[in-house]
Amino acid sequence: MTNIVEVKDLVKKYGDNVAVKGISFAIRQGEIFGLLGPNGAGKTTTISLLSCLLTPTSGSASVVGLDLVKRTREVKKYIGLVPQDLALYPTLSARDNLNFFGRVYGLSGKALNERVDWTLELVGLTDRAKDAVETFSGGMKRRINIAAGLLHKPDILFLDEPTVGVDPQSRNYIFDNVERLNREGLTILYTTHYMEEAERLCHRVAIIDMGQIIALDSPKALTESISGGMIHIGLVNGKADALVERACKLSMIKDIRRVDGKLEIQTHRAQQALIDVLEIANQLDAKVTSLQVFEPNLETVFLRLTGKRLRD
Ligand SMILES: Nc1ncnc2c1ncn2[C@@H]1O[C@H](COP(=O)(O)OP(=O)(O)OP(=O)(O)O)[C@@H](O)[C@H]1O
Ligand SMILES: [Mg+2]
Fold first, then answer.
1. Which of 140, 150, 161, 302 supports an S-S bond with 136, CB 3.0-4.6 Å?
2. Backbone phi, then psi, for 247, in 5-degree steps?
């Protein structure tokens, strides 16, 4: 598989503050690659380096095989950037904003009109094209920002926290757009501190903290790499003691406690432990009245690796 982005030992210092501490990774052509990390992790700095808005302190990076420092002018046309901070002219209409950004990218005439129509349709704002952007909701402004990043048909799109402060309807539009554009062949770098988004959208995720990549794999492989998981089970009276006695001998189970009349079972692997626990319940003829299974997720992976939560 071809790599569209290659990053090697990339460092960015702001004075004494080292925002990016020698990261290396590659993004494969056609994937949605996530950068997942808390506030201040270095996500925006990384995207700004990859979009040639910042110059690295050391290390190197390339997009479509072109070095970002040596071939800046050429490489920019392959990149679409949707920045974290909105960059729109509030008093201009949605269409005029897109016309403006299209001209910045070198588009004009019929080609510009067609691209503006296409991107407005994509983000579901064709019927609001003539309205001033200042009358839009936060989510609609984000969607126009995304449209602007797509006007020049980039090969890779950098989306920096595209759903922060966005209403549920716009959030769904953004998810659908990301998935559709990717199906049509666009490679996407997606930064977020919402683990649900990384789990839903990204083929691979780099977990970034304090300027360093601390894990990189598919969301499934990352969550399977750590043990854990919990089962909450409610049983009809009289059978819980017998179940505890037998279940605590199972190799998949770490600990069992009674909480609010239910059993709280700490496991090494929740799914495997669940099969054993339900088999015991069946043998005891114990009726299960409630059941909840908590598997590790990317938040758990982050917590396990750093001792911190992704969000405060
Ligand atoms: N222009 C700047 N000058 C000085 N320090 C900066 C600048 N921009 C970012 N930093 C610092 O670099 C570090 C990384 O910031 P960055 O914006 O890349 O993080 P982030 O992961 O995008 O965070 P967030 O989720 O809040 O957007 C932080 O410590 C931040 O304070
Ligand atoms: Mg940021």
1. 140
2. -70, -30
- Tell whether ligand 1 has an atom less than 6 A from the beta carbon of residue 162: no
296, two tokens: 């590790």
- Name the pairing type of β-strands 187-192 and 32-36: parallel
Atom 1, ligand 1: residue with shortest CA distance: 14
In three-state form (DSSP H/G/I as H, E/B as E, the rest C), the secondary structure along 99-164 is HHHHHHCCCCHHHHHHHHHHHHHHCCCHHHCCCEHHHCCHHHHHHHHHHHHHCCCCCEEEEECCCC
Separation of CA 61 and ligand 2 centre (Å): 19
- Nearest atom (ligand 1) to Cα of 42: 18
- Half-sphere exposure of 240 toward its Cβ, with a 13 Å CA cutoff? 18
What confidence tens digit (pLDDT) does each residue in 183-235 have? Answer: 999 999 999 999 999 999 999 999 999 999 999 999 999 998 888 899 999 98
Q: Which class is domain 230-295?
A: alpha beta
* Residue 311 near ligand 1, beta carbon < 6 Å: no
Ligand 1 atom having least distance to the Cα of 84: 27
Structure confidence by residue, pLDDT tens digits, 131-185: 999 999 999 999 999 999 999 999 999 999 999 888 898 899 899 999 999 999 9
pTM of the entire predicted model: 0.90
For a mutational test of ligand 1's pocket, the pick from 39, 45, 192, i.e. the residue with the most ligand atoms closer than 8 A to its C-beta, is: 45
**Ligand 1 neighbour 50 (Cβ under 6 A):** no
What are the pLDDT digits (tens) for 239-275? 888 999 999 999 999 999 998 889 999 999 898 999 9
94 in Cβ contact with 133 (< 8 Å): yes
Domain boundaries, the chain: 3-224, 230-295
What separation, in Å, do the N-terminal and C-terminal C-alpha atoms of the chain show?
38
Determine the distance separating the centroid of ligand 1 and the alpha carbon of 207, expressed in angstroms: 16
CATH number of 3-224: 3.40.50.300
